[in-house]
Amino acid sequence: MSHTVVKVLIHIVFTPKHRHHCLNEEICSRLYPYINKIIQNLGCYPYQIGGIEDHIHILCGLGKTISISKLIEEIKISTSKWLKLNYSELSGFYWQSGYGVFSVSLSHFNVIKNYIANQIDHHKPK
């Protein structure tokens, strides 16, 4: 094969330090587009970003020149700085060091995309 083809879909989950409930709707309305741009600038493909006050989910396609750990590191470093700069109440903000990453098959792509898009409903008390 004379060219490189990569189709690796991943579902990423990470949280603020101590699962602090600090990611309100107003913050997320600006944070998610910022994350989207970071992912694109790293040569990856953002499909869905969502979450609630204490965690974020990202569905993306991994680019051909970046590792999963480097992608997450870049997202966390950039967003941590951005949150501290743009929200004085988050001057001490940090992400937890850990994260979850799960492979996503093409047959489950829409299920995971909808799950992430509907995080607020998913976490409502029943």
Question: Could you characterize the architecture of this molecule?
Answer:
A hairpin with a 2-residue loop joins strand 2 (45-52) and strand 3. The longest helix is centred in the middle third of the chain and has 19 residues, at 68-86. This protein has helices spanning 25-41, 68-86, 109-117, 119-122, and strands at 8-14, 45-52, 55-62, 100-104. It is α+β, with helices and mostly antiparallel strands and 126 residues long. Helix 1 (25-41) packs across helix 2 (68-86). It has a single domain, classed as Transposase IS200-like (Alpha-Beta Plaits), CATH 3.30.70.1290. A 4-stranded antiparallel β-sheet has the order 2-3-1-4, sandwiched between helices. It is 39% helix and 22% strand. The chain is built from 4 helices and 4 strands, in the order βαββαβαα.
Task: Furnish the topology, listing elements before pairings.
Elements (H helix, E strand, L loop, with lengths): L7 E7 L10 H17 L3 E8 L2 E8 L5 H19 L13 E5 L4 H9 L1 H4 L4
Helix pairs in contact: 1-2
